[in-house]
Design a protein that fits this description.
The chain has about 80 residues and is of the alpha+beta class. The protein has 1 helix and 5 strands, in the order E-E-E-E-E-H.
Length: about 80
């Protein structure tokens, strides 16, 4: 699956393993990800694509805030 901006992903490796995040930018084999809590939108984390598990959900990130992002990702962590 191809990484897209706004895609909800799950971390499969690293200290954030098992957490759901959103892709904010893609650079070759890397993606910038954030969750609105530990990784804010302004300070996204650079992570290799092979360490991410993709979902079929893509959200609009144009008017996204950290609070809205946490609300969206909460649905994934509860299920």
């Amino acid at each position: 699956m191809e990484a897209k901006i706004g895609m909800v992903v799950r971390s499969v490796a690293g200290h954030d393993k098992g957490r759901y995040l959103v892709i904010t930018a893609v650079e070759g084999d890397f993606a910038h990800i954030c969750d609105g809590k530990e990784r804010k939108l302004e300070t996204s984390k650079k992570k290799r694509l092979k360490h991410l598990g993709f979902t079929n959900t893509v959200i609009d990130v144009s008017n996204l805030t950290d609070r809205k992002l946490r609300t969206i990702l909460r649905e994934y962590t509860l299920s």
